[in-house]
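The protein record passed on for reference:
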Amino acid sequence: MGRLARASLVVLLVALTVLAPAAPANAGTPWDYPEFPYPATTYQEPFRGQFHFSSQSGWMNDPNGLVYANGLYHFFYQHNPHGLEWDTMHWGHATSPDLVHWTQKPIALEPGVHPGTLFSGGGVVDRDNTAGLKTGPLDPIVVFSNTNGVSIFYSNDNGRSFQAYDQGRKQIEIPEESRDPKVVWDAARHQWAMVVWSNRGGNGVDLYTSPDLLHWTFASRYAADWLFECPDLFPLDGGRWVLTSATGEYVVGAFDGRTFRTDRPQPKKMNLGTTYAGGTFYAAETFTGTPDGRVVQMAWQGGNRGSTWTGNATFPVTLGLVDSPDGPQVTRTPVTELDSLRADSRSWRNETVSAGGRDPFAGILADTYEITATFDVAGATAGQFGFALHSRSDGSADRTVVYDRAAGTMDGKPLPPTGGDVSVRLLVDRGQLEVYGDGGRFSFSDNVNFDSAAVSQGIRLFATGGAVRLKSAKFTRLSTSWGTAQPTLESTLAGPWHAAGGSWTDTAGGKQAQATGDAFYLSASTAADAVYQGDVRLDTAQAAGLTFRATADGAGYTVNVDRSGVVKLWRPGLDIATYATPLDPGATHHLEVRTTGSRIQVRLDHGTTPVIDATDTTYPSGRFGANAYHGSATVQNLNTGPGGFTAFTSGPWTTRGGAWTTTPDGLRGTASGNGFFLSDRTGSDFTYEGDVSVTNGTAAGLTFRATATGEGYTANIDTNGLVKLWRPGLDIATYPTPVIEGRTYHLKVRTTGARIQVWLDHGATPIIDATDSAYASGRFGVNGYAGNTTAQNLSIT
């Protein structure tokens, strides 16, 4: 689902006042993708769930493309990052190692960068590379979106960036109103299957199959009045298949590779909350590719909001399937990873609960917690019993959960006893309440604005009209799940990270410091001898750099760039060595430190020769981190190991337009127009080659015979479908060929006097053979234009 206001079901009209769009949101541009438009937060705002995911800021609705890929769970979701109401859908992105501790990541799919209407959809991990989209060591994440047809987007860097397949053209054309594709692997037939909601004369899903995720064949249609938008189809429990709708209604049946059939077409409901758009349970989706084969589900809860965010996700549950008198029934049970949040707990057995009697929960004050309890209903005389949550001394409470013995209901929803007992499980968060019963057969999600003040954190177990025996109960305090990983800082160093001085916040460019004196941001990784490198940008700071062999408070060695025009290696109380050089405070500078015993070598901006080579024995080992001094500075790509930008021998490189940073995989550039990264190496006649790609945007290439400002020749790949040789004011020659975003291309240039030849991808013959005499000699470098680009493995012969 994407355009909430278009919904045609009468039940959705209830929510329209909540879901109406506000002021228009922003669309992005390729050169500044991926954006991270989130103000800093500690996730401690009133009503912010402490173990339920909510976007760091902005509006969220449907879960999208839930996958486990390359060691992380990825939660994508419908998102307006620029406002608190639905508008201009993006795909938000968060990751987790365990389904519990989520970290906000930059935007995944962004209007203006990715074509089409980026409404709800599904995703898979193409572990066997059936689509042939894989370009590196990581398994591709492939996601599906758009309306009235399906477009495909994919990521080869574990969700950091996405490219549009076939420039976003619809790979499935559906002339009727349609949306919300969901893809699943059909293992029995070794194929992919897709369900898409469409209005072919009424509600239902179209089913498609594919061997490779790219070429789809219409297989069949399953029509049902209840089956409105956001469908999901997945196998469960030994080959039976479940088909669901946005409202949490479902049927269980069989899928033969082309057709879904069920002998019980009357749907059941898997959650008994308010199951309309903007309610407490809507548009649930299951993860694909889970490492243990579990079917794990999350849904949208629209009723939670605060000053900076709107909406949250339900806590993830494992789905099961049990038989019942009226056919198979789906069960929902919180994932066992919840155990990682457990703190202190208390347990009781065989307590009698009655009006005026002893309350075992008396005296407990708690804000976020779990309660499990089993009651003997067969022997009870109480008409009702239950829990008053966030209760106060005056008898009031923010929410009561009540079991009615005569009606056999929990909060008015059917929960019949099993063997004379009723078992319940409550997850209480600051803005969310989830109630489970009868082994997961009963499931109820709610949004509640719990008052977290200490005077409102009581819990009261009550019974009215008699007594009930509490056979067993357990209270467990649950800790917060936030703040355990890095949203924007890319690093191979281990966490947790901590600040020692100043404030450190996340920006699109990395971790940004605000410091009055020295401020340090320190990882948990330690070493004695290492190669440590990273990118540093002086925003307003006097100096910033890399810290190593440090204590937990930052005492150790630091090498920094100083806007006065020096690179400095220092430790507390001593400037060990300095190197004077012109520095551009607005540019990103790359620092590399090599330590061998007492010897410390520093290289600047990919220069081959160290600018500092010194010895000091004060700190033999310690932590890695970053430093900023007196102002704001941004650090990024803090990595140990030999990876980075591989290029020919040169002195320090310089930036002329755009921003250039270094990942373990190579040089990354971003520019709104032309950006150049130039070495101090020059040449006249030569062979120059390297690997370039356009992550998103227009062009990337090799620059040669250039001036210090980048004016010279450039041979580039252009996503408009050509290889181009150009100089300022003139396209000298072009060669038409498909150029795909995210794909790496090898360019080779050979110059002999005025003759310039260009080869593509190790071809035997040049694709361009031209003459031009404007530039006889000059610098070597790389170029990026109107987008994000990468370069690696540059060589000159």
